[in-house]
Amino acid sequence: MSHREIGDMILAVEDISLAFGGVKALTSISFDVREHEVRAIIGPNGAGKSSLLNCINGVYSPQQGKIRFRGESFTQMNPHRAAVMGIARTFQNLALFKGMSVLDNMMTGRNLRMRSNLLLQALHFGPAAREELQHREFVERIIDFLEIQAYRKTQVGRLPYGLQKRVDLGRALAMEPVLLLLDEPMAGMNMEEKQDMCRFILDVNDEFGTTIVLIEHDMGVVMDISDRVVVLDYGRKIGDGTPDEVRSSPDVIDAYLGTTH
Amino acid sequence: MLYRENGQFKTTYARDQQVFPILQDRIGIALLLLVAFVAVPLLAPEYLFRAILIPFLILALAALGLNILVGYCGQISLGTGAFMAVGAYAAYNFQVRIEGLPLVLALLGGGLCATIVGVLFGIPSLRIKGLYLAVATLAAQFFVDWAFLRVSWFTNDSASGSVSVSGLQVFGMPIETPEQKYLFCLAIVVIFAVLAKNLVRGAIGREWMAIRDMDVAASVIGIQPMYAKLSAFAVSSFIVGVAGALWGFVHLGSWEPAAFSIDRSFQLLFMVIIGGLGSIMGSFFGAAFIVVLPIVLDNAPYWFGIPIDTALAAHLTFMVFGTLIVFFLIVEPHGLARLWSIGKEKLRIWPFPH
Amino acid sequence: MGSFLETLLGGLMTGMLYSLVALGFVLIFKASGVFNFAQGAMVLFAALATARFAEWIPHWTGLSNKLLINLFAIGVALLIMIAVAWIVERLVLGKLVNQEGVTLLMATLGVAYFLDGFGQSLFGNAIYKIDVGMPKEPVIALEKVFDGGVLVSTEDLIAALVAAALVGLLALFFQKTTTGRALRAVADDHQAAQSIGIALNRIWVIVWSVAGFVAIVAGVIWGSKLGVQFSLSLVALKALPVVILGGLTSVPGAIVGGLIIGVGEKLSEVYLGPHMGGGIEIWFAYVLALLFLLVRPQGLFGEKIIDRV
What we know:
The structure holds 3 protein chains of 3 kinds. In chain A, 39% of the residues lie in helices and 24% in strands. Chain A is built from 10 helices and 10 strands. In chain A, strands 6-7-8-3-9-10 form a 6-stranded mixed sheet, with helices on both faces. Chain A has a 4-stranded antiparallel sheet with strand order 2-1-4-5, covered by helices on one side. The two termini of chain A are 36 Å apart. The mean pLDDT of chain A is 87. Chain B has a two-stranded antiparallel ribbon. In chain B, strands 2-3 form a two-stranded antiparallel sheet. In chain B, strand 2 and strand 3 form a beta hairpin. In chain B, helix 2 (23-43) runs antiparallel to helix 7 (178-200), helix 4 (80-97) packs parallel to helix 6 (130-150) and helix 12 (280-303) crosses helix 14 (335-349). The model of chain B has no long low-confidence stretch (mean pLDDT 86). By secondary structure, chain C is an all-alpha fold. The model of chain C has no long low-confidence stretch (mean pLDDT 79). Chain C has a single domain (2-295), classed as ABC transporter involved in vitamin B12 uptake, BtuC, CATH 1.10.3470. Chain C has helices at residues 2-32, 39-61, 66-93, 101-123, 154-176, 178-188, 190-195, 200-226, 232-246, 251-276, 281-295; strands at residues 139-141, 150-152. Chain C is globular. In chain C, helix 3 crosses helix 8 and helix 6 packs across helix 8 (200-226). The chains are: A alpha/beta, B mainly alpha, C mainly alpha.
């Protein structure tokens, strides 16, 4: 549960529909996310959860519907604009830069905030050098926070899966996002790793006030850490409310547990 | 035992970010520079300069430029020869048409023109990649080949189709003897290597590598692929252009478009592959290898007492190149640079095995 | 008008020759997803082998029937190309399974260099003749329509027919036979094909051998026309724009692409060339391909390239 006071609506998804050729991934999805809250998106495999996240940060363009973020309304978002506006995300299959070290991967998250031009960088002089150090300090704080100091110079491709997931999170955090989209951050983790990841997510929400939208399969995690939940099934929304409300909703029980006749 | 890092603690990020964080490396580089700038000019025979050192330096510079594009940013280019040609001919035109223009400015002007052409032919990279991009860069290669052959303005209406320069000097000092040429090239190459190293370990270098590794994720972070790719083409072409100008002015003295043909493009690509993609040092290794190898192959039979004719030696060179390319791609795609750093890793813990 | 037609026909014929080389590219790409930069070197190698063996066989066996000699030479060349295919698969392709396309491309570049050097070391580097008894005198056609008639090279005509026959054969092969289907599966996804039991290495040897055969045909026809020399392997570079235009995965595309490039080159040289200083043949094909890449990268008949996120 978020310890912060939950604010007003910061993101609204309005009547989003997405299709790939003949396959309908999302049909008329609408819900909102309030500032500082932890919102979970759950649903069986293939329900369209990742596609929904992709629409929010502009990787996919929905055929219909609008996205409202921080007062502005978009029919088409693109990834760059989403990043500039303060949306960061992690990927289900990890989209890390395999050829670079942990530190460098996370430093790329600071790219939007780097101002110095090519020439100054080439000379490694004055403002460019100072900027590099400033951002390095910021990233090091995130590295401390995620407890991956020992691996900062290791090439990301060589790390075990659980640590790679942390680096993915770290890179998103380096962007100092207002809204953090997490796509199955705990997939493939054991119990301890999950606890660590939960702790990180809650700490981020607590300390920085970052609004979090996460896709997750582990019901225990969802019930424990989220303020509100959206349930998808076959691209449609079938539930929306607090964890308790959703848990006892007959539609959700139907979709997940099936009914006996 | 010698290569220990014991006791070398870095207490500030600035120290950690140094190019050569290990003390022994710094000493090594300092020694290398000392030898290069002082010992070699005093001791080396003239043949060494003309046949090996000067070509090595200039081609290493070109390979450095190509490595930025192919190794760091992952954009393939088979048109490097064309960009060298643009640099050479542009510098020539600057020098010939502007009275009293300093040599360095002419060279840099050549680089700038190469930058413009490079960015132009880099635009397709925004839509296509891999093999298709390779074909686009070949278009650049052949078009430029033709332009410098047929459009007589570029050669200052030279009747023979070739151009020449002479009487080079910088800051009043002449650049005529092999030693002077060598030192001039060495200075330029060292400066560019430092600048390039700063770029690749800074923000733009990370952008390039992000695009190389996964361009979709890069755009999610806020990196603009267009800016990253075109800047890679720009920086790469600038360096290659300056190298081309040096090749024409300092090494050849007089040249025709054939000096920058597709064979040159392939040669540079081989240097980058064998030396190590994504490594500044690798460009030097690759250049040294490719410059020295034909000479070794030409002369080795004599050393062994088996004379072979030059045609056969040339064919053998082709065969060895081809085999080595395949070998490196299979065994060590990161080239000699990776072998070098593996060697250093082993050295750090020597005499222990691990 | 007559000279326009001659230029056009000349362009079509040259285009046919390009198509023959491009066919080899398409075959290998279609069946293994590898872009074979070494195709040109293979053409040269095959041509050299054929030419030299045609010279040597009479010495060794005392045969004098030209047809028989050439058939034997081609047969020996085919065996050699199969051996080359086997070696390339063993030493190069087999070790680079599932690497990125660019790596494989550069590996074939290495193979090209190797074959160039090897072929010339083995067979020599002078200019050799191939004489398969093709008629050299041109035919004068359409005398009634155009004054003086139109000059048609019989040699090129035969080349065109041979190429057409080859295309037909290959198209049938891919569509109708089991091996053809297997080849298409491999082109799609190496690992998936392996996992359903397709023997990747055997398939690759087959494909490269067929491409080798195509290289022999191309080499014999080119060599008969121009003489067998080193510049033959540079012709391969011309085939690149052809496959870009036609589509990397399309056999008919290789023909259409070749014809367009051949005609385009000749026409632009004759009609545009004089205004631009001449010699635009060296870049025309490439710039055309570049324009296609910007507008329609998959070419006229290729499959649309989908870049998955």
